[in-house]
Amino acid sequence: MISPLLLLAIGLVMVIGGIVWLRMHAFLALALAAIVVGGLTPSVYLERHYLLEKQESIERAKELAGQSVGKRVADGFGRTCSKVGILIAMAAIIGTCLMESGAAIRIVRSALSVFGERRAPEAMAGSSFLLGIPVFFDTLFYLMIPLAKALALQTKRNYLLYVLAIVAGGAMTHSLVPPTPGPLLVAGELGVDLGRMIVGGLLVGSFGMAGAFAYARWYNRRNPMEVRSGEDSDKGKLLQFAQVKDSELPGLLFSLSPILLPVVLIAGNSFLQQISLEHQPGWFSSLKEFSALLGEKNLALSLGAVLALLLLSRSSVSKDSELGPAVRKSLKGAGVIILITGMGGAFGGILQQTSLGLDVRSFASSNELGSLGVLLLAFFATSAIRIAQGSATVAMITSVGIVGGLVSQGFGVHPVYLALAIGCGAKPIPWMNDSGFWVVGKLSGLTEKETLKTFSVVIALQGIVGIVAVLAFAYFFPHFLF
Questions:
Q1: Is residue 217 in some structural domain?
Q2: Residue 447, helix vs strand vs coil
Q3: pTM, whole model, 2 decimals?
Q4: 225-250: per-residue pLDDT in tens?
Q5: Cβ(139)–Cβ(95) under 8 Å?
Q6: What is the number of structural domains in the chain?
Q7: What are the C-alpha distances in Å from 294 to residues 95, 188, 253, 255?
């Protein structure tokens, strides 16, 4: 009988081979892998999965095991989309409106004015870290690189540091802080409260950003570089944003509100729900109910999207922009991400149905892995997939299907830390099969060798420093902060 590990190998080869060698779209590669692995999975594995891992009755386990592979893949796809679909769509609207309204430029310029020219690299990293929450990294880099070049021409130094500061900040939140697709799906699959995931992602992400930024500053001192022209001549609209006058930009608080409101509502609700008073006053009960209403993740992101659309409608930067085209542009990109994430969730579910989690649990038990060992296992498993096929998101959604079952198997691992370990594992090591490698290299004017020494190392250090932070938090705060 075919083993679960062989089924995993077949699935990984199909995903990696399809994306890297056959140049297939990630959605198709994941779909084919899910169907093939699901079709090859013996019914005895399916029954064992539903019986031992899902705690279903014998009759129910047999019934579920008898479903066709198409039904199981479709159920996994639908279940994942129901968790992340609205969130990804609203985050895309927020990101597009922040850019087209000039709000993103306002945030960056305000940070630069506070930190001053001497601390401009820190301002670039901090701004990118914040903007990376709703804006996908490639888009964020397109937005920020003209500012980095303008700043380097003004200061006549630190061009490479400005570029790497954007990477150190913007790429970190991409793998750790919802509502970006990877951490959003992982949190959903592991049953992690979204508020806790946001807080944990921001804390661990700040350590990862600091470690990566320290290397960027060190490398920049030893390898100074003048401003180089990149292949960004077709990004005229984003280049124009760098020339906009401050008087035309929206206010800072208004610019920040589409990001901060959902974060505060979701994280605040998570914190309040953990508070239990022996004699709870009526006003506090009402506050918790009100917080539960507004802090529900879909509603909170929707409120942020409404603020973002209001921001765009009142912007003097994009006078000719209409809300309809902006929303269509946002949802066009979001639709592809939702499809990939949904099928990735289906593939992860199919891997779980092979009862692979029981084999991973057996491995962890036989090697006496404690909670910290399980976190390292998740980190290295995700890193191996990331190195092989290039996509951090695909690595995360595949890895959670492999190690996700360890949360409920008595290893003492808090699901937040497992989710963060997977997110950190999605960082090392980006190379030529990663789209971000080419975006950063080409737009910055770096050679492939220089990109490997800078971008690849910075991203890898994010993951390494991040997992050290996760292990430290898990050791000192095993039940998380709240």
A1: yes
A2: coil
A3: 0.78
A4: 888 866 544 445 555 656 677 788 88
A5: yes
A6: 1
A7: 21, 19, 20, 21
